[in-house]
Amino acid sequence: MSTQAGKTIKTFLKNWISLVGILLLIVVFSILSQMRFGAQYFLTLTNWKTILLQTSTVAIVALGQSIMLMTGNFDLSLGRMLCLVSCVGAVLMRNLGWPTIPAILVMFLIGIVVGSINGALVSYVRVPAMIATLGTQYICYGISKLITQAVPIPKVAEGFSWLGRGYILNNTIPVSVIIMLALYIAAQFITTKTRIGRSLYAVGGSREAAFFSGINVKRIQFGTFVLGGILATFGGLVLMARLGSVAVTNGENYEFDAVIGSIIGGVSLTGGKGYVLGTMFGCIFLNVLFNGFSQLGVDPFVQDVLKGIVLVLAVVLDVLSNRKKD
Amino acid sequence: MGKDYILSLQGISKEFPGVKALDNVTIEVERGTIHGLVGENGAGKSTLIKVLAGIYQPNAGQILLEGQAQTFSSPIEARRAGISVVHQEIKLAEPLTVAENMFLGNILMKGRLVDWKGMRKRAREIVDDLGMDIDVNAQVSSLTVAKKQIVEIMHAINNNSKILIMDEPSAVLTNRELEVMFRIVRQLRERGITIIYISHRLNEVFDLCDNVSVLRDGKHIATKPIGELDRQSLINMMVGREMGQEYPKEPGTIGDTILKVEGLSRGFVRDISFEVKSGEVFGISGLVGAGRTELARAILGIDKPESGEIYVRGKKVHYHTFADAIRDGLGLIPEDRKLQGLVQIMSVERNTTLVNLKRVSQNGVLRKGLEKKLSAEYAQKLRVVTPSMDTQVQFLSGGNQQKVVIAKWLFQDADILFLDEPTRGIDVGAKAEIYRLIDQMVKDGKTIIMISSEMPELLGMCDRIMVMHEGRKMGELTAEEATQEKIMAMCV
Fold first, then answer.
1. Res B359 pLDDT > 80
2. In terms of CA atoms, which chain A residue is nearest residue B352?
3. Same domain for B134 and B220?
4. Which of A38, A261, B94, B492 is most buried (CB neighbours < 10 A)?
5. Minimal Cα distance from B359: which residue of A?
6. Shortest alpha-carbon distance between residue A212 and chain B (Å)
7. What is the mean pLDDT of chain A?
8. Which of B212, B239, B266 delimits the end of a domain?
9. What percent of chain A shows pLDDT beyond 70?
10. In whole angstroms, how far apart are CA B461 and each of B251, B423, B480?
């Protein structure tokens, strides 16, 4: 019985290690903050609003990425795709004077088109995901620079700034955080409790076996890329609402941060394992880490080094836990 | 005694956490013989080979090679001492040439440079010596599986091996290729090389071996000259109990034609016509590469037929995808259980329900309680041995994995089921259970189309057998008229 309990705890830790990591960081940083400044700057409502607000956009993009990872793919174009749709939206609204709603619809259309191109290349033409999405990444970035001449466009998203800056419940919880939570909870439900979710895991576990169980593997893979495009667009919308401007740096490195967040969150690189909700915690973990270090005055350039270390550590853990079973 | 033992294992034990894989095994192997090693899956054959090959170190016991005690701490040491292993999965450098592969780990040098000429010359000598038709400059990846295996054997010869261990070399070979391999193995014996031959196919053991050792549950049961054994006594030693009828087939209730194929062509499969009646077990025989799997794929909508017609229950059908065929009550237990049959990292429960998630869901949402209950019922019915329903299938034995694959299709309630090599790599005891399941399915009104390279099982289980060769139908035999000889005659 006790081994059973031990096993349950072990499984829990394995699936939700990022959550444990966040708790650890909270303890460490709040103590350090207290020691260094004699007051609590870390564990405050304001600071956590900032952390979660910053997490929300990348986490929305990471949701798409983690679903693709779960099915054994990934998409390197997500960040630049976010940038492209944001630039198109900004140009339409600011330079061409389009009303908000049609401009947003066009943004989503572009997200869907780029996602479809990625999906078609990977699942139907069978170009390796790395190459296909690296290609579209450059295409997206190039077009973004072309249509904006790489000049930032200010004062966008005035009609929907609440999406990025609004709060509910007495100014305590950012709207974008609610959106993030809602998307993740919905995705967690769909992936773990529905037929389509089970098929996703099956495809990630073994494309061949999924195919021989009558699952339309190509369509599912295609679908995850389209979903990735839609979520990247959504993330772009929230980001431009928060920043109030669009520049070609919007969404830079999001695709990698999304992968890092997913891996930390327990979504295995080999596919078929982990939970999307873990990805959200993984993204929060990363932002907590950087927020804590910034507060303590650690050089911001060190942060990239840290990100790399965290990624490698997470992958090593993943590889080791897979190896044990062989 | 007076016998010349080249290899003597004395009291070898090997423990893994929680398992005693080998328990005080003592076996002696005579020089220049073919020594069979048989046992069910999990009996300890693989562990024993790994101990001999230096991959595992025994916890107790001694290996004497030509009377000298040996301890191998790595495969290289075992190879240097003269023990080579031809593994079940071929381990060659595919992009390199035959000659290069034969000298892997043992490259000929001329001064400080590689002696390509010398290696090619020596490689050609070995090939000619064996009477093989293999171009030593060909890329290994361009060879058939059978020839790759021969390259592995030649690699061992080139290493001056005294003992060659062959781990289920026949699993992937066609009958004709098998004959070639047998000839080579016997040739090696003539030269004084000792062969340890592991196989699930008892016919081969009787054909080829001089002596045979039986392992069961990690223990050595007996070593006997083959002449003192018959098939039944060998099986009994392997499973440790009296085995019942190996093929339990009783005639089912045969009904109307349920599947009719007319002039079907796809790729090299040409103009195939046949009919299967409901309740029948219809066998498809032929060598590997005869087009049997390709035929099944074309019928099931996996590949698009180029011409021909398919009727299911009297209705003409055009399946665009495999999913269409599944909806129509057809199913396939694929050739490659590990890769195609199951999602290895998914649980027994989830694999069981995967083909028919509709049955355990409502409006697309899974009903976990129902899934748990139903999948457990199927596992029980099929006597799947598993620690729990949540255990990933990768931890199950081959036979139990195959039962889960069958459970999938019973769960889907497919009534026309294609079985492609359903007992490949499964041990005797589990095989009998699979046959029992097939018999049960037929009694439950299902129709089975069984593709197999093992003639005894086709003869034992089928009502009718169609023979294919190079993509064409060579003929059809009823259970009464079919014999191994007649089928073989049609295959060539």
1. yes
2. A213
3. yes
4. A261
5. A195
6. 6
7. 89
8. B239
9. 97
10. 9, 12, 12
Domain membership of residue B246 (yes or no) is no
Q: Which residue of A has its CA nearest to B367?
A: A193
Closest CA of chain B from A206, distance in Å = 5
Which one is predicted more confidently, B37 or B233?
A: B37
Q: Compute the distance between CA of residue B44 and CA of residue A264 in angstroms, rounded to an integer.
A: 39
For residues B137 and B88, membership in a common domain is answered with: yes
Q: What is this model's ipTM?
A: 0.86
Chain B residue with Cα closest to A201: B346
Q: What is the CATH number of the domain that holds B115?
A: 3.40.50.300
For chain B, say whether A202 makes contact (Cβ under 8 Å): yes
Say what percent of chain B tops pLDDT 90: 37
- In total, how many domains does chain B have? 2
**The total number of residues written for chain B in this structure:** 492
A323 in reach of chain B (CB within 8 A): no
pLDDT at B162 over 50: yes
Q: Show which residues on chain B lie within 8 Å of chain A, measured between beta carbons.
A: 321-323, 326, 332, 334, 336, 339-346, 350, 354-355, 357-358, 361, 364-366, 368, 392, 394-395, 408
Residue ranges making up the domain that contains B115:
5-239
Q: Where are the alpha helices (DSSP H) in chain A?
A: 2-15, 17-37, 45-70, 78-90, 100-119, 129-148, 162-165, 175-193, 195-205, 207-211, 217-243, 254-264, 276-295, 300-323
pTM here is 0.80
Which residue, among A3, A213, A215, A216, would best test binding to B if mutated, counting the most B CBs under 10 Å from its CB? Answer: A213
User: Chain B residue closest to A216 (CA)?
Assistant: B323
Q: Which residues of B touch A201 (CB under 8 A)?
A: 343, 346, 350
In a domain, B319, yes or no: yes
Average of pLDDT values for A286-300? 88
* Closest Cβ–Cβ partner in B345, B350, B392 for A198: B350
Residues of A with Cβ-Cβ distance to B303 under 8 angstroms: none
- Same-domain check for residues B233 and B275: no
Both B431 and B482 in a single domain? yes
Residue B408 pLDDT > 60, yes or no?
yes
At residue B253, the pLDDT reads 80
Of the candidate CATH numbers 3.30.750, 2.60.40, 1.10.390, 1.10.3470, the domain formed by A42-316 belongs to 1.10.3470
Q: How far apart are CA B398 and CA B390, in angstroms?
A: 17
Residue B244 lies in a domain: no
Q: Which residue has the higher pLDDT, B339 or A14?
A: B339
Nearest to B406 by CA among B451, B437, B432, B370: B437
* Among A15, A87, A36, A39, CA closest to A248: A87
Residue A201 at interface with chain B, using a CB cutoff of 8 Å:
yes
